[in-house]
Fold:
Amino acid sequence: MRTLLISDLHLHPGAPEITEGFLRWLEERACGSDALYILGDFFEAWIGDDLLDLAGADPTGNADLAARIARALKRLAEDGTAIFLMHGNRDFLLGERFAREAGATLLEDPSVVELGGQPVLLMHGDSLCTRDEAYQAFRAQARHPLWQQQVLAMPIDQRVALASQLRAQSGEANSNKAEDIMDVTPEEVVKVMAAHGVTTLIHGHTHRPAVHELEVDGQRAQRIVLGDWQPGKGWEIVVDGGALRLREIPLSQ
Structure:
C-alpha cells in the first residue's frame, strides 16, 4: 500500500519545466500508487471549469494546459490510483467538471483520512495563517457560494482579468507583510488538531517544507508541511506501510 501527497505546484503555461516534471512524476512515481492527494494550489489560477471548453482556442495556453493535466490524471485513475483534489487559495474555483474529467474526487478542506493506519488531518493550510487578517477576510469572501456564483457568471475574459488583478494585489500585499504573519499560527494548529482528534497534520500553502514536532492534548504530535514545486525540484509525502516521509524530488530528466 503506497499513498502520495503533493501540494502547491502552481501549474501555469509560463512554467513548462514544472508541468513536464509533474507529468514525468505521474508516470514514474505515482503510477501504481493506491492514492494520490493534491492539497491545493494545483494551478496558479483557476477561473472556472468552462475553461476546458477553450482547449485548442485559448491564446493564453491555460485551457490546453488544463485539458492536458486532466487527461494525464484520468489515465492514472484508470490504472487504479484514487485521486483526491483539495482547493487552495489560488484554485478555489476548481469544480466537479474538472474533477470528473480528471478521474478525481474533490476533497473538503479540512478532511481527516486514514494514512499509515492512523487518522491524519489534511488541509491546504491557508486557514491556519490567522495572523494575516486581511487575507482571512478575503478568504471568507472567496469561499462564499454567492460570491463564487457571481464570479462564475462573468464572461471568461473578465474572469481572466480578475484573476490577474487578484494575483497582483496578493503579491504586492505579501511583499509588505512580516514573514511570521504569512506562516501558520501555532495556537491555531493545536486548536484545529485537537478539534479533529488527530496527532498528525499535513498541509501546504506556506512553501516551507519541514516536519514540526508539537504537543496536542498532552500527546506527541507532528505537523508535516509540503513544499512548493519549482523548476528542477518538487516535494512529496510518501506513505508506505506505517511511515510518512517528506521527500524532495528531482524533476529534471
